[in-house]
Amino acid sequence: MISWREGSVVSLGRSWPGACEATVRTASGAEVRALAYVDLVGSPQVGDRVLLNATALERGLGTGGYALVVALPDALPADAPAGPGHLVKARYSPLQTMVLGADEQESEHHELLRDADDLAGLPVVVADLHSALPAVLAGVRAAWTGPRPPRTVYVMTDGGALPLAFSRAVAGLREAGWLDAAVTVGQAYGGDLEAVSLHSGLLAAHVVLGADVVVVAQGPGNLGTGTRWGFSGVAAGEALNAAAVLGGRGIAALRVSTTDARARHLGVSHHSLTAVGRVALAPSDVVVPVVSDDVPVPGGADTLRASVDDARPALEAGRHTLVDVPADATLLDALRTSPVRMSTMGRDLDADPWPFLAAAAAGVHASRVAPLRPASH
């Protein structure tokens, strides 16, 4: 069911590529913060009448506190010019959109991708949450020793937000030069390249974009039910399998916390134990952050060390390689250089550094094993 609201724009807020904020006064007189995806609905202006989907906002769910603009009824954007592409994303929803897939016949990249089948050892860091992305990149940059900056590509899956434009982190990382490109796969859309599947998205990152390191994660908005299998991050295990099938080097970034109020996410999260230990059937590198005495550990260093050690057998699962990477003050300093704010589940780097240290440790390992490519892209 949808909670519909109608109102008018009273002011405009922040904007970034593909999205803008607006304050909307609804028919009841309440003012709500709304988000418009400008490529879909156009750019709202003060005074415009808007139709909103306020369902998640009304329920207090994690949408960033937004109602979503469904339409500007009196200022509909013009039809897009006819062009190539017949890949429909967010299929059969009211705001389905048509894009040009890098892998479809009309694409200039089709010939490159038609028979592509090998990632040639490309490091593919897989994380449960979107919030890990800047941390992984911080680790990559901290450990990189090549003669040029690392070329990094984010492959966004469709377990969370479908529009890439929802992510202010991606916009900030792109602007700062930390992220070179993004590929949206499955039902997700809005990347530099679009792909039908995770597999073709990984291959596009490799053969079209020339990535040195790829980070795979869902968009913002993890969905979980508190059950063993009912969470969108279970797809992280399938992403590790995809990397292995294509000859890439799958690298699991663990989800770790010392302050989460939910016991199932304290220490090594049950999400990682399930996705890595049970779903990821292909051998992968599982990066284990080594607790250092020079980094604060809310809840106690010994407690975290014990949790990590207890998780090792389930994470190794008889097939994976556990890779210990020091999570020390040097790595924490690298995280503090991020051009975007570190935040996960409402907690920042100071409140709970360990989700970010664990992700950054995976980035460090990716840098160390990345085969250096010629700077041709």
Walk me through what this model shows.
This protein is an alpha/beta fold and 377 residues long. The chain folds into two domains: 4-71, OB fold (Dihydrolipoamide Acetyltransferase, E2P) (Beta Barrel); 110-369, 3-Layer(aba) Sandwich (Rossmann fold). It has eleven helices and 19 strands. It has helices at residues 38-41, 55-59, 110-114, 133-143, 168-176, 198-208, 235-245, 270-279, 301-316, 329-335, 354-369; strands at residues 4-16, 19-26, 31-37, 49-53, 67-71, 87-89, 97-99, 123-126, 152-157, 181-185, 193-195, 213-218, 249-253, 256-257, 267-268, 285-291, 321-327, 343-344, 347-348. The strands form five sheets. The protein has an eight-stranded parallel β-sheet with strand order 11-10-9-12-8-13-16-17, sandwiched between helices. A five-stranded mixed beta barrel has the order 1-2-3-5-4. A two-stranded antiparallel ribbon has the order 6-7. Strand 1 (4-16) and strand 2 (19-26) form a beta hairpin. The longest helix is centred in the last third of the chain and has 16 residues, at 301-316. It is globular and about 60 Å long. The relative contact order is 0.14.
